[in-house]
């Protein structure tokens, strides 16, 4: 398939009161047409910051790309003028956020917000824009779209609002969608419905999808590949089913063991002890070593490279073989 997005050796820093935060430290990934890449990690792993760098919306808070390239259909986005990036954003790549209520304008009807995309980008008349808004709401299966197009965001349930966000992202038929925790704020049953809808639309429209989540439990059925991030680096990347069968990195193993399961009530919250490191003070050697049950002396001194693992996989663990063998 056509490669849509390539992130190459991306580095992003933030200046904070405590010093320079190294949010992204050499990330590489690629997504093609019709493919879904799940980017996994705890908060502070750099998964959202990488996405914001791709979208060109790193300005809040002020982040700085210090190295790397972001190619969209072979074109280096970091070399484009802001006006060109603005055109690509929305028309060719769009983003879906976790919190629809704050992403949508509370004083405009959803019809006006959806329609606005066609007025601004496609020069549509108000009447046509309204008709397109209703079509989009049908497409994301909002019941009684023709009536509900006049409602305001707060009049919808959380799940329906997230569908409206998806409709906004789809409006201009972008080739690539980045969804940052699109279902995290929703109830579990609604989560599954919204995720299914997103996956179905992705297939139907053969879009590329980057699905950012902290929950390995939601990606099994929708992703082709998975990239696990820790302290601003990718620590494991693999075809999704291989990761579930046998993780090649102890951090991925920990995430797998953290997936809530009915037979493990009560202890589903965090199987990985400790907290992610401060990005102003990332541990030497393997950044995961203070939390890793397999850590040895070499882990405290030597940064593991992203080793090649058989089966189109990579792992940044000195002991990936042992990890694979369980
Ligand atoms: Fe654990 Fe060492 Fe592997 Fe890092 S390199 S994940 S500390 S075993
Ligand atoms: Mg985030």
Automatic annotation (TrEMBL):
GO biological process, one term: peptide transport
Gene Ontology annotations for the cellular component aspect, listed alphabetically: plasma membrane
PROSITE patterns found in the cross-reference section: ABC_TRANSPORTER_1, ABC_TRANSPORTER_2
Membrane-crossing segments per the record: none
GO molecular-function term, one example from the UniProt record: ATP hydrolysis activity
Primary location class: membrane
Keywords: ATP-binding, Cell membrane, Membrane, Nucleotide-binding, Transport
Membrane recorded as keyword: yes
Pfam families in the cross-refs: ABC_tran, oligo_HPY
Domain ABC transporter stretches: 7-256
Topology versus the membrane: Peripheral membrane protein
UniProt-annotated location(s): Cell membrane
Protein family per UniProt: Belongs to the ABC transporter superfamily.
Database matches in PANTHER family: DIPEPTIDE TRANSPORT ATP-BINDING PROTEIN DPPD (PTHR43297:SF2), OLIGOPEPTIDE TRANSPORT ATP-BINDING PROTEIN APPD (PTHR43297)
Protein name per UniProt: ABC transporter ATP-binding protein
Organism, as annotated: Streptomyces ruber
Source organism phylogeny: Bacteria, Bacillati, Actinomycetota, Actinomycetes, Kitasatosporales
């Amino acid at each position: 398939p056509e490669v849509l997005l390539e992130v190459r050796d991306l580095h992003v820093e933030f200046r904070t009161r405590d010093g320079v935060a190294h949010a992204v430290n050499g990330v590489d990934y690629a997504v093609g047409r019709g493919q879904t890449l799940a980017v996994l990690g705890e908060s502070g792993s750099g998964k959202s910051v990488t996405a914001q760098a791709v979208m060109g919306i790193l300005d809040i808070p002020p982040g700085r790309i210090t190295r790397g390239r972001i190619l969209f259909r072979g074109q280096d986005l970091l070399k484009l003028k802001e006006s060109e990036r603005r055109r690509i954003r929305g028309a060719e790549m769009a983003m879906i956020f976790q919190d629809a209520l704050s992403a949508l304008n509370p004083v405009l009807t959803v019809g006006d917000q959806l329609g606005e995309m066609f007025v601004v980008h496609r020069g549509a008349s108000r009447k046509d824009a309204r008709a397109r808004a209703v079509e989009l709401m049908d497409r994301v299966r909002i019941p009684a779209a023709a009536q509900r197009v006049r409602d305001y965001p707060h009049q919808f349930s959380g799940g329906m609002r997230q569908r409206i966000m998806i409709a906004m992202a789809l409006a201009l038929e972008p080739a690539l969608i980045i969804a940052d925790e699109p279902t995290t704020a929703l109830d579990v049953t609604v989560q599954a419905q919204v995720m299914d809808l997103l996956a179905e639309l992705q297939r139907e429209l053969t879009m590329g999808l980057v699905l950012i989540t902290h929950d390995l439990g939601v990606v099994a059925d929708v992703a082709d590949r998975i990239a696990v991030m820790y302290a601003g680096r990718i620590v494991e990347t693999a075809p999704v089913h291989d990761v579930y069968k046998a993780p090649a990195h102890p951090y991925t193993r920990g995430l797998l063991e953290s997936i809530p399961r009915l037979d493990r009530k009560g202890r589903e919250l965090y199987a990985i002890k400790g907290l992610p490191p401060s990005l102003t003070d990332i541990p030497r050697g393997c950044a995961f070593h203070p939390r890793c049950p397999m850590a040895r002396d070499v882990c405290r001194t030597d940064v593991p490279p992203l080793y090649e693992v058989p089966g189109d996989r990579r792992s940044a663990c000195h002991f990936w073989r042992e990890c694979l063998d369980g």
